[in-house]
Design brief:
Blueprint (H helix, E strand, L loop, with lengths): L3 H18 L47 H12 L11 H4 L47 H10 L8 H10 L3 H9 L9 H13 L7 H8 L6 H10 L25 E2 L18 H4 L8 E2 L21 H10 L18 H12 L4 H4 L10
Antiparallel strand pairs: 1-2
Length: 373
């Protein structure tokens, strides 16, 4: 009996096992060798003290993802790190820039493939107070759900979560940071569920409550100029001799949004099924939700142009002119969408007021800034 083939087969099998056991931690070749390497370091998370003024409602903080100093800082690093994208060139902050109140200045955002997205980048402000879902159409119930989407969206990061997990597990710093934040013991435990928890923690601390109008209204500090006061009266439906429906029906103080979804009269369509973008209706499958989109917050609105879900208006003047014309009598339009006279002075006054909602401390807060700079 020829024993040589059996011997060669044995040596081949032994060599494969040995090569797998000695696999370089930075190699992708060994798909069957999980990252079971233990992570050293302490797990003693520090509760994060979220500062919210008494005149704001309580933030919504899920019990399964409490805020910690370590978790928030990890989320901040991940938010600014392009490691989450396919080409390592795009991060969350690419489309959500602090100096622009966490928008990007584009009508729609451009992803790693160089293709434009479908909607405008929303401002990330006071997200911890929203209980009605995220994105323009509300399809993500929680911030954790929302953070799962961009990684695998072909018009955004165009990556897979499996690849992201491997990149983070092999990173020189992230495993210990995840241990400090979530107590994991092995690199293999660094999973997408913890990545989005960290991102959500950081996004929940992005609170804006220190605009000039906040200080005037809540703290009795300073005064409004005459044009700002006239604009305030228009905004809050104190029209005097102007037949104006008021903006605050949907842009409710103190968040300047009702966190709800409306057809605000942008498009004329022959039927509710004819909207180019169905918006909320694509989520609920209710035809009366077609063409409805989330009411965006007006906090820091002068920094977040262009406007609307598709960025169709470049200036606030264009926005006001559109509302002045009224809607298109579509059956699910918001009841407050109706024509009203708006003079050039009225527009200037309203914009002067809207600029008092700018919170410079928010867009300059070092706790929200890029940790890699």
């Amino acid at each position: 009996m020829n024993k040589q083939p059996i011997l060669l087969l044995f040596l081949a099998i032994f060599g494969f096992i040995a090569s797998c056991g000695n696999q370089d931690a930075d190699s992708d070749d060994c798909e069957n060798c999980p990252a079971e390497e233990k992570i050293t370091g302490n797990y003693q998370p520090t509760p994060y003290q979220l500062q919210v003024p008494s005149w704001m409602s309580k933030p919504i903080l899920p019990p399964d993802n409490p805020l910690t100093v370590e978790g928030v800082e990890l989320g901040r690093r991940l938010f600014y790190d392009p490691i989450l994208s396919l080409n390592g060139q795009m991060s969350c902050a690419t489309c959500h820039r602090q100096e622009q109140a966490f928008t990007d200045g584009g009508a729609t955002s451009v992803g790693v493939r160089g293709l434009p997205g479908l909607r405008s980048s929303m401002s990330l402000v006071n997200l911890a107070f929203n209980a009605r879902g995220f994105f323009w159409d509300g399809r993500a119930v929680t911030l954790e759900d929302q953070a799962l989407v961009p990684v695998e969206d072909h018009l955004e990061f165009n990556e897979t979560w499996d690849n992201v997990e491997k990149k983070l597990q092999k990173h020189t710093e992230y495993p210990i940071l995840f241990r400090q934040a979530f107590g994991i013991e092995k690199k293999s435990e660094l999973k997408k569920e913890l990545v989005v928890k960290a991102l959500a923690q950081f996004e929940r601390i992005l609170i804006s409550v220190n605009s000039r109008f906040d200080r005037f209204l809540q703290l009795n500090e300073g005064f409004l100029e005459d044009d700002e006061e006239r604009g305030r009266r228009l905004f809050f439906f104190e029209p005097g001799d102007v037949a104006h429906p008021g903006c605050s029906h949907c842009h409710v103080n103190p968040f300047y949004t009702d966190h709800n979804f409306h057809n605000n009269g942008l498009d004329s369509v022959p039927a509710l099924e004819s909207f180019k973008d169905l918006g909320r209706g694509a989520v609920t499958n209710n035809r009366f939700d077609n063409g409805k989109f989330r009411t965006p917050s007006l906090r820091n609105i002068e920094l977040t142009a262009p406007y609307m879900h598709d960025g169709r208006f470049k200036t606030l003047e264009e926005v006001l002119e559109n509302y002045s014309r009224g809607g298109h009598n579509i059956e699910n339009e918001n009841a407050n969408i109706a024509p009203f006279p708006l003079t050039a002075q009225n527009k200037r006054d309203l914009i002067a007021f809207l600029k008092t909602l700018t919170d410079t401390s928010f867009v300059k807060n070092p706790a929200f800034s890029n940790p890699f700079k």
